[in-house]
Amino acid sequence: MQNVSITGLIVFAAYMLIMLLVGFVSSRKQKTSSDFWVAGRSFGTVVMTLALMASIMHGGSIISGAAFNARFGGPAVQAYISFTLGFMVILVVFAKKLRAMEAVTLPDYMGRRFKSTFLQGFCAAVIAVSSILYLIAQTRGMGLVLETLLGIPFEVALVLGTLIFVAYVVMGGLMAVVWTNIFQFIFMWVGLIILMPRLWGVTEGWSNIFIAVDKIVPGWTSITGTSWTTTYMISWCFLWFIAYATRIELITKVFAAKDVNAARWSLPWAIFLVIIFLTYGNMYLGATARVLIWDKVAIPDQALMVLAKEYATPFMMAFMLTGIAAAAMSTTDSLLLMSGAAVAHDLLRKCYHEPRKIQQDERYYLKASRITIATVGLIALVASFTTSQMILQIVGFSVALTGSTFFAPLVIGLLFKRVSTPAAAAGCMGGFFVAAVHVGATIAGAEWAKVIHPVVTGVGASFALMIIVGFITQASAEECEAVFRT
User: Which of 79, 126, 186, 338 has minimal CB crowding within 10 Å?
Assistant: First the structure.
């Protein structure tokens, strides 16, 4: 174990030096808040594709994705179809119109589209709350990895991981996030693939491991897996469709593309790479963990780390776990940045200062963003000490809140011109509060809440309220902007 810790420290330290260096260099380019939040809208298709890929492959996707596959089997695999469809919604419906509008954040779109600072402020608050939930999951994933990689206590690992990713986001903004995402993308791929030859020799190939796991756990390869009902499995798939159609960090990177083509064509390439990666990173490694080391796992989210301990050399293990740590950081940094933008740009500038004719310079909003990022990181760190939920379950709750708030207003607002502000507000607020109640009931253990995922009730309520209120309060053509018809 001592060799693993020393090797892990060397590899991880080298990786972190690169991250902090990128953050420092990027900080030299931050002249305005637009530079900080959308990197001056300068990214082409290749850079966008790599950055999107890294954002999608977060700590939950790898650590808890493999754990979910190991624990439940079939239902975890069904989500692949769902997020592909969700990506297609962004590609076909959202990307062109959102990029043409040149907003800075998703709440910025809501405020401009529906001409409401109140709605923009509410959406900014939702992003801050849901980002904290998401960050709890990613922070726990980082802690589990660093605990194994460096041989330090879990609590110390949580603090160390949080300090690192808060530091480079505070310094460099989206420019640092995107370029660190590219380095993280490389570490992720190499880190997991480096283990393949050793596991392939033990499992004797792809088909044999799935035959073996179904013998050990009957039903593992079925659609509903080991223990899920058909109803909940369908709602789980719906969750990930909504998740990838409304993922804040993906939509925000659309705003950072240099033009509409870069925004649109980076998405299908990212889908292709994600499916290849998860087929190995989740399905194969999940089945392998269930067959080889499941009896040595205390909690499911430790499965990948235990697999690395048992079958990797110290160097391989260090590189692999550093790659997984990179995955956790690649989403966490985006969410931190969005929290900063939601508070500084949407709440302070758009909802408070501009309506009151208060003038503040760019340095003020940059400072506000950085303070918010540090605060949100601290809140997520404290909360991560007390939760016992699986990482992917926490992510699911966060998705339920954001998807229930934004999906209906995005779809209806971008497809139909004459959508009123009251209809959008009813959809946003009603969807959020219905989902929040269902999430609370799920955590409390209510039986009725286990039938379907909270995202179904939240999104359903949002669409219903938008349609009902929309019929009563239809907007005039003069109230709508031409950009939404392009």
Answer: 186
Eight-class DSSP state of 474:
P
Cβ 150 vs Cβ 161: under 8 Å: no
Question: Considering the entire predicted model, what is its pTM?
Answer: 0.70
Rounded Cα distance, 224 and 229, in Å: 6
- Angle of helix 45-56 versus helix 154-193 axis, rounded to 10: 130
pLDDT string in tens for the chain (486-residue length):
445 567 777 877 787 777 767 666 665 555 555 555 444 556 667 777 776 776 666 555 677 677 777 888 766 666 667 777 777 776 666 666 666 665 567 787 788 888 888 888 898 888 888 878 777 777 777 777 778 777 788 888 888 877 776 776 666 555 556 666 667 667 767 777 777 888 888 887 778 888 888 888 888 877 777 777 778 778 777 877 887 777 666 666 665 666 666 766 777 777 777 777 777 777 888 888 888 888 888 777 778 778 888 887 777 777 777 777 766 666 666 667 777 778 887 888 888 888 888 888 777 877 887 788 888 888 888 887 776 555 667 777 887 888 899 888 888 887 777 788 899 999 999 999 999 999 989 888 888 887 888 888 999 999 999 999 988 887 654 555 544 444
Nearest to 146 by CA among 8, 284, 285, 277: 8
Indicate the burial class of 413 (C-beta count within 10 angstroms; 0-12, 13-18, 19 or more): buried
**Token pair listed for 83:** 């997020």
Sign for the pseudo-dihedral over CA of 297, 298, 303, 306:
negative
Residues 6+ apart with CB under 8 A from 309: 4, 148, 317
> What's the chain's Rg over C-alpha atoms?
22
